Amino acid sequence: MTEIIKYFEKNNGYVRDMDLKKKGFHSLHIKQIVDNGTIIRVKPGLYRLAELTEPGNVSFDFVDIAKAAPDSVICILSALSYYDLTTYINPLVHIAVERDKKIPKIYSVKVKGYYFSEKTFNLGINKIETKYGIVRIYDREKSICDIFRYKNKIGEDIAYECLKNYVNSKNTDFFKLKEYAKICRVAKIINSSIKTLLG
Question: 29 lies in which domain range?
Fold first, then answer.
């Protein structure tokens, strides 16, 4: 048991199934330590040590997604919650992938996937450094645009709450928001909503 914990610690807490087997840990042994809670199955073929120190200002859900789906980006409600722009508590982590990509099966986190075009997918990506690797998340302005794009599915009231909180927050960048809104084809509704909020 101690040997496998040390191996995970040496590899920054995350280890692939094939690497465990190369080190002599067989499938039955791996299953036993998953069952007793020593390690967590993140996705098929990837495990995380259960007892790890906190990754910093993001959750392990975000880090697990970064490891399991490195081409994805944390988006919409999950990003807006990270930036304290919504009070809505969402049980799923929202992630975006490009339309030609697949969302992998993730066991450790419940996710809601969105498929973006290349143009909108690559817009406004922030990279957060953690001790376990990089987490990719859309910036505040892109997240506002995205929730207005999906307001009919998520809820208009939530979208307007997020925009109101953004307008009333510090470090707003209305120029960037308007540029993103044009690209995301939500300029008309966002501009009119901002005018209403600003009176």
Answer: 2-49
Q: Which residues contact 88 (CB under 8 A, 6 or more apart)?
A: 77, 81, 158, 161
* The residue count for the chain: 199
Give the whole-angstrom CA distance, residue 13 versus residue 188.
46
Q: Are residues 72 and 137 both part of a single domain?
A: yes
Residues 6+ apart with CB under 8 A from 178: 187, 190, 191
Q: Do residue 29 and residue 113 come from a single domain?
A: no
Q: Tell whether 86 and 138 lie within a shared domain.
A: yes
pTM to 2 decimal places: 0.93
No. of helices (H) and no. of strands (E), the chain: 11, 8
Flag whether 178 is in a domain. yes
Q: Mind listing the pLDDT tens digit for each residue in 121-148?
A: 999 999 999 989 999 999 999 999 999 9
Question: For tokens 């450790």, what's the residue?
Answer: 108
Q: Which amino acid appears at position 155 of this protein?
A: G
